[in-house]
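Weekly modeling sync, notes
Attendees: AB, CL, MP (scribe)

Item 1: holo prediction request
CL wants a bound-state model with nicotinamide-adenine-dinucleotide before deciding which constructs to order. AB pointed out that an apo prediction alone won't tell us much about the pocket. Agreed to run with the ligand included and paste results into these notes for async review.

Input as submitted:
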Amino acid sequence: MRIVVAGGDGFCGWPTALHLSNQGHEVSIVDNLSRRKWDDELHSNSVTPIASLEDRVEKWKELTGKEIKTFIGDLNHYDFLREVFRQTEPEAFVHFAEQRSAPYSMIDRDHAVFTQQNNVIGNLNVLYAIKELAPECHLIKLGTMGEYGAPNIDIEEGYIEIEHNGRKDVLPYPKQPGSFYHLSKVHDSHNIMFACKIWGIRATDLNQGIVYGLHTNETKMDPMLVNRVDYDGVFGTALNRFLIQAATGHDLTVYGSGKQTRSFLNIEDTVRCVQIAAENPADKGEFRVFNQFTEYFSVKELADKVQKIAKEKGLKTEIAYLENPRIEPEDHYYHAVNTRLRELGLEPHLLTDEVLHDILQTVIEHKDRVIKENVLPSITWK
Ligand code: NAD
Ligand code: USQ
């Protein structure tokens, strides 16, 4: 299958591009390399040293004989995007290419506006390009579990049956996101749903939980293929951050009571979920929603797990309960459904002690790259 991976230089996109290529698909990457520029803006870096996109794909070709074409440019530039569609004639378009940090979107007005412009308009351009140039192409869009927020009822996969004044309907599940970034994903979902309805586009919204880990079978093949791992207070995410904090002797930064619960999955499952979605496309006009996670944990549970594993490695790790820089419910009900990807064959990699040991070992090897000043949270929601 001819597949474009937009955002293919990023944390989820790079291993996904390699995995799809390894499965025999004809993969092209689109990326404007903005994630590397945001590191410069924040004076931050990936814990692992990452090669340039050019060197990454060259090494992949050398190792496997498989070519991944690259297109460096912005989804917000429609002429560029049309040219990508003309040259690649995609059968599936995997869309990872957004600003994905909640704290970054909450820095100030400029960053909130940038996030929503970059994400919402980029996605709208993709919808128009599909309509105009590849109407059969399946859009596989990365959404987020955070679109739903933390309602006091079970979270369904995209839709819920509602009975009101004696009548029933199946309606989009209510959305109560917790940042301007998470809101951009909600706006994307609405735009995609509408485009499916009016133009008959086929789309899958993958409402993904927080991704942990870094290696996949493909990225492990050579140091030049290694994935990025974020740890700073802006782009770093809960579990990976705690492991890197343990490796560097930093206290684990639990925000508030740590009772807030989130969905998680291993990066090895991200790449497989996208493959499953691509190889089982949505019907024409269908707006399909899959909840893409394998387990959920409270933040405190994760910190406890990391503390235990770190101790086994001889590291002394304390848990610090910091004043929560975000405005979010901490003590809440959480139960979310995730059956659709499993029905299509996903076999989850669960969070075992062995998995935690492996990730910790990798980050220990690179711990000298951590810029200590970047670890504490610096952005508040107020
Ligand atoms: P990332 O920042 O590492 O990668 C995103 C990539 O997209 C970067 O390489 C960036 O340069 C590129 N990009 C951004 N805007 C672009 C634009 N306008 N045009 C072209 N390229 C652009 O992020 P990630 O962690 O790989 O996340 C990928 C996607 O998955 C995002 O949409 C994110 O919202 C979603 N997601 C991520 C997680 C997670 O835990 N990392 C969880 C749920 C959902
Ligand atoms: N948290 C801590 N300590 C930390 C970091 C985070 O307690 O050091 C808490 C936060 O307060 C929050 C939870 O952990 O309650 C998750 O925060 P996060 O930074 O790990 O994740 P989040 O901001 O939700 O965003 C990440 C990705 C985003 C993706 C989302 C999936 O950056 O792209 O959409 O996870 S989800 O959370 O399911 O919406």
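Recorded for review: Residues 7, 9-13, 31-35, 74-76, 96-100, 118, 122, 142, 144, 208, 210-211, 237 surround nicotinamide-adenine-dinucleotide (ligand 1) (CB under 6 Å).
Action items: CL to compare against the apo run; MP to circulate these notes.
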